Amino acid sequence: MATRYDGTKAEVSALNAFIALQRAADSVEAATQAEIARSGLTQSRFGVLEALLHLGPLTPKELAGKLLRSKGNLTLVIENLEREGLTSREPSKEDGRSFTVNLTAKGRKRIASMFPKHAKLITSALSSLSSSEQEDLRRLCRKLGKAQTKGGGHD
Amino acid sequence: MATRYDGTKAEVSALNAFIALQRAADSVEAATQAEIARSGLTQSRFGVLEALLHLGPLTPKELAGKLLRSKGNLTLVIENLEREGLTSREPSKEDGRSFTVNLTAKGRKRIASMFPKHAKLITSALSSLSSSEQEDLRRLCRKLGKAQTKGGGHD
DNA sequence: ATCATATAGTTCAATATCAAACTATATGGC
DNA sequence: GCCATATAGTTTGATATTGAACTATATGAT
């Protein structure tokens, strides 16, 4: 954003990196948008299904943590997934307040069938970076993510 | 997200980088959230004011391009900013359909006063990366953004 | 057992977000 | 000038998103 900001060098460097980071994340996500919509899903619903596929059944709270969204948001998205028969809830045996969100057969089939195409789109979106650049990007981003998981947890 | 996906090496590499990218962007943005809310703004409104401060008056379409949001979204956010007296619209002389969004004195004062604190928060959020790592991150992200600006423009 | 406190999930009101349909103005041939 | 087409901004309906207040259950101390 042509950050003409008269701050310290450290600030200018951080702001420039931040702006680039936001735009890159937005633009890669945009690259997946059309395909997800074409399958009748939204980014949120896709995100939940993807998490359940790769990690197994999770509680709403766990999903909120993985996806960096609020609990209230998850309540809605889970509701919408259930309405479409893509997930079901299984009451927790240890905790009467909680339940796990499970993929239905239909939900599993849906997300599993989408994933290969999704992976190809992401791969293509990142193809301007070499394999080792992708590694670098991952390393730098993880360093950020880890350092930042302080108090601002989405609860 | 522990991407256990049985794809090619290239796919796994791209997916891992993508996931890290999304989470890093989300978590740095979250670091700015509280302060922006404390000033009575939202991320969207802050984004528009920030763009106007650094780039000068812009049309809704230009703002949509800069911020990677839809035109319809900008219509609403601009409306909300006007309601609070932070921006005003100036009819374009060349194009009767358009107008530029301008900071009011109040709007300029508000965003300018927030920026130093904002810059410090971003700097702190990125402080786990050295200056040269921040440069690397920026370079990698820009390479992505540029490559990806194909047809998926938010119009 | 009781009670204070913490935690899981829900609800609510406000705002954001998109795609698609729509309105109004521009622009380029003719 | 007229018309086809393109473009700027708005509207609409559906969904997402948050923070805060709320309900219900859990947990730990006594």
Question: Nearest-angstrom radius of gyration of chain A?
Answer: 18 Å
Strand fraction band of chain A?
Answer: 5-15%
CATH fourth-tier homologous superfamily of the domain at 41-131 in chain A = Winged helix-like DNA-binding domain superfamily/Winged helix DNA-binding domain
CATH class of the domain at 41-131 in chain A: Mainly Alpha
Low-pLDDT stretches of chain A: 149-154
Quaternary status = homodimer
Query: What spatial form of chain A do the alpha-carbon principal axes imply?
Result: globular
Second-tier CATH architecture of the domain at 41-131 in chain A: Orthogonal Bundle
Mean pLDDT of chain A: 90
Number of strands of chain A: 2
Of all chain pairs, the largest interface belongs to: A-B, 66 and 66 residues
Span between termini of chain A: 32 Å
Task: Provide the succession of SSEs of chain A.
Answer: HHHHEEHH
Strand order in the sheet with the most strands of chain A: 1-2
Biggest pleated-sheet summary of chain A: 2 strands, antiparallel
Specify the helix fraction band of chain A.
55-70%
Structural class of chain A: mainly alpha
The number of distinct helices of chain A, counting runs of at least 4 residues, comes to 6
Q: Per CATH, what is the topology of the domain at 41-131 in chain A?
A: Arc Repressor Mutant, subunit A
Walk me through the structure.
2 copies of one chain form a homodimer. Chain A has helices at residues 9-38, 43-55, 60-67, 71-83, 105-125, 131-148; strands spanning 87-91, 99-103. The first copy, chain A, has a two-stranded antiparallel sheet. Chain A is mainly alpha-helical and 155 residues long. The first copy, chain A, has 6 helices and 2 strands, in the order H-H-H-H-E-E-H-H. Chain A is globular, with a radius of gyration of 18 Å. In chain A, helix 2 (43-55) packs across helix 5 (105-125). The two termini of chain A are 32 Å apart. Chain A has a domain at 41-131: Arc Repressor Mutant, subunit A, CATH 1.10.10. Chains A and B meet through helix 1, helix 2, helix 5 and helix 6 of A and helix 1, helix 2, helix 5 and helix 6 of B. The structure holds a DNA duplex (30 and 30 nucleotides).
